Amino acid sequence: SGLPDYIGLMTDDEADVTTPAQALDALTTVEELHFEPGTRFEYSNSNFFLLSLVVARAAQQPFHEFVQTRIFTPLGMTSTRLFHDHTLVIPRRASAYAPRRGGGFQVAMSDWEQLGDGAVQTSLVDLARWDANFTSHAVGGEALHAFLHATTPLAGGQPNSYARGLFVAQFLGRERVSHGGAWAGYRAELMRFPAEKTTLVCLANLASMNPTALCEEVAKLVLGL
């Protein structure tokens, strides 16, 4: 889209409390795009954040309630919720850490309340249920499945591997659909190989970990690559 990432427009301290209203206010200060939409790919949390506001207004329902009702509950994701309120108590949540300068570790948590681009509190079991929907199409049907995986070339015909919240590309000659995430001390990767009906999920609570690289190493072993 060319929209700058709202995170870069706000405080650099992940531990500060920030709200959706503050993020929207920050985006209103943008006077020009980074580039003409469609001419190149640059990941921006702003797109997902703004889409969550669109969904909430269209549904006339808070985004976290909409997602819970329409997605998490139908899929049986009983341990999943959106962190829309920094005072929420999340049962069984693992704290996140980062290496401390000089040795040891320190807590690396966030109190940001923006949604759409993250803030999903979940578990390995629930992510397996999420992943199964890409086969069963229980939520969204086949039409949504095709929509999410569709890629559009950039202006000028250059290839673009980013679909709609999914990277659709090749890994050592195998079709791979994946996406990773990183915020505060949390790291995550979900990597699916559709033809092999194999999915790898890695959740980490240490900022120095690299779940993508770990999943790729496991993929090589499991798929014999």
Supply Rg: 18 Å
Looking at how many chains there are and whether they match, the oligomeric state comes to single chain
User: How many helices?
Assistant: 6
Average per-residue pLDDT, rounded, comes to 96
Q: How much helical structure, as a percent, in the residues?
A: 25-40%
Strand content: 15-25%
What pattern of helices and strands is seen along the backbone? Answer: EHHHEEEEEHHEEEEH
In total, the number of strands is 10
Distance between the termini: 36 Å
Q: How do the strands of the widest beta sheet line up side by side?
A: 7-8-9-10
Uncertain stretches of 5 or more adjacent residues: none
Shape: globular
Q: Structural class of the secondary structure composition?
A: alpha+beta
Main beta-sheet annotation: 4 strands, antiparallel
Notes on the protein architecture:
- This protein has 225 residues and is of the alpha+beta class.
- It is 30% helix and 20% strand.
- It contains six helices and ten strands, in the order βαααβββββααββββα.
- A four-stranded antiparallel β-sheet has the order 7-8-9-10, with helices on both faces.
- The longest helix has 15 residues.
Short summary:
About 30% of the residues lie in helices and about 20% in strands.
Feature tags:
6 helices, 225 residues, 4-stranded antiparallel beta sheet, 10 strands, two-stranded parallel sheet, single chain, alpha+beta
